[in-house]
Amino acid sequence: MPRWRAVYPRLPHPEHIARMERSQISLSTQRQNASMPRGRRHPLRWILALVALVAVAVVAAPFVYIHFIESDAPPKLDVSSATTAHPSAETVALNGVWRAGSGSTAGYRVDEILFGQNNTATGRTHDVSGQITVAGTNVSAGRIVVDLKSVTSDRTQRDNQFRGRIMDVTSFPTATFTLAQPMQLGRVPSNGQIMTANATGNLTLRGITKPVTVTVKAVRSGNTVGVSGSIPIRFADWNIPNPSFGPVTTQDHGEIEFLVSFTHA
Description:
Lipocalin
């Protein structure tokens, strides 16, 4: 008589079951990703890429603007490179009164930082008046007046800040330098010769007057005398608010520069 033996089905090993479950999950995920638009598969990756792009733009935009779009600051005012440095055949007596006229320029120069990029801001005007008195080898008296209302730079926003909050030109429309003691020339300059001397006087800005000493260059050219120089100033000394505004940060000091062309009266 034949023997019957019970046959029981073999159960999968637990490890095989785990592998099958992982495969099913992976396949389900792949199908789900395939059905999603490509832009929605990795939202975190796109967010990080967008943040990086914005950061690069913030840094690159000021660099491109300052180095490729905005014009370079003009050179400092100096009689050495001005037209008054070229001698004229006509020569008049040096003694007497000399008045500021056409060809005169004055303004400011300040270093600023825009989003980490260095820049030099300048503002200038040709509205300069005044006179000096020469007696022998001395400049016995002198006064220069600059109309601050007409000072302009290459940026309207900067000019609005300058005329309003910074210099308040409505209340203080001019800047003046008045010679406080005779300026010694040492000798009568020959035509076309550039001379250097120290001028001690009083500088008035925003209603505040303080003594200053400035090294000036002067050149005699026929019937004109050109005088140039720069006066370093610390804004707080003249109650001038720090010029920083918006994304622009400036130093706490700057320079007043001038090139004045005097004609014999």
